[in-house]
Amino acid sequence: MIGFLKGFVLHQDVDHCILDVNGVGYIVYVSSRFMVNLPKPEEKVSLFIETVVREDAMTLYGFQTLEEKHWFRLLTSVQGVGNRMGMAALSFFTPQELYAVIASADKASLVKVPGIGAKLATRIVTELKDKPALALPSGTLESPSLQIRAKGQKLPVGNSVQEDALLALEGLGFRRSEALPVVVGVIATVEGEAVLSEVIRACLKALSRV
């Protein structure tokens, strides 16, 4: 099985690229998020690989982080979520955003992914929200979002979206002092009632630029 590849991107298509690894070209299916951020032609790219073997084909799916690969496995473990749909979800959401969506049972956001309807969104949330596998195995490259589950914690439920968002961001590794102004600013821009998962996603994007 192939678990990792490093090489140059020779060609890119809508949902895959050809990776030149020491003169051998591998067709690797990747997210549109990866396509948007392709390195320069002379720069090597490293991808963690999920190898899917079937009777008639062997398909490679590439991920920039182990966390993305882990979430791909989680999503495709749900009945009705195929490999292409798993990649579509990772094109639409970062792993941190997926964690927030599922932890807060935000089915409305999941149905924005092409191919995911209301019933499938409900199944994804139901099967994954309390799944122990949301924590990466020890010894792998864990991110703060997954370390929360590794400790058996859940996103807290409070009396306000602001406080819930702050506690969630603290659980993701951010200091309250740096998260507070971002949360307040995000909520201030929301028209109508603020939705926790949307606030968390907006805050993560803002904090990643700091």
Map the helices and strands.
Blueprint: E1 4-12, E2 16-21, E3 24-29, H1 32-36, E4 45-53, E5 58-63, H2 66-76, H3 83-92, H4 95-103, H5 107-110, H6 118-128, H7 144-150, H8 161-171, H9 176-189, H10 196-208
Helix pairs in contact: 2-3, 4-10, 8-9, 8-10, 9-10
Describe the 3D structure.
Residues 161-210 are annotated as: Domain III. Residues 1-62 form the DNA helicase Holliday junction RuvA type domain. This is Holliday junction branch migration complex subunit RuvA. It comes from Entomobacter blattae. The protein has 210 residues and is α+β, with helices and mostly antiparallel strands. The chain folds into 3 domains: 4-64, Beta Barrel (OB fold (Dihydrolipoamide Acetyltransferase, E2P)), CATH 2.40.50.140; 66-136, Orthogonal Bundle (DNA polymerase, domain 1); 155-210, Orthogonal Bundle (Helicase, Ruva Protein, domain 3), CATH 1.10.8. It contains 10 helices and 5 strands; from the N terminus they run E-E-E-H-E-E-H-H-H-H-H-H-H-H-H. Strands 1-2-3-5-4 form a 5-stranded mixed barrel. Helix 8 packs across helix 9 and helix 8 (161-171) crosses helix 10. The protein starts with a strand and ends with a helix.
Shape: globular
Any idea what the CATH architecture of the largest domain is?
Orthogonal Bundle
Task: Report the total helices.
Answer: 10
In which range does the helix fraction lie?
Answer: 40-55%
The name CATH uses for the topology of the largest domain is DNA polymerase, domain 1
Distance between the termini: 39 Å
Q: Write the CATH homologous superfamily of the largest domain.
A: 5' to 3' exonuclease, C-terminal subdomain
Count up the domains.
3
Strand order of the largest sheet: 1-2-3-5-4
Give the topology string: H per helix, E per strand. EEEHEEHHHHHHHHH
Uncertain runs: 135-159
Main location: cytoplasm
Protein name: Holliday junction branch migration complex subunit RuvA
InterPro entries: DNA_helicase_Holl-junc_RuvA_I, NA-bd_OB-fold, RuvA, RuvA_2-like, RuvA_C, RuvA_C_sf
Subcellular location: Cytoplasm
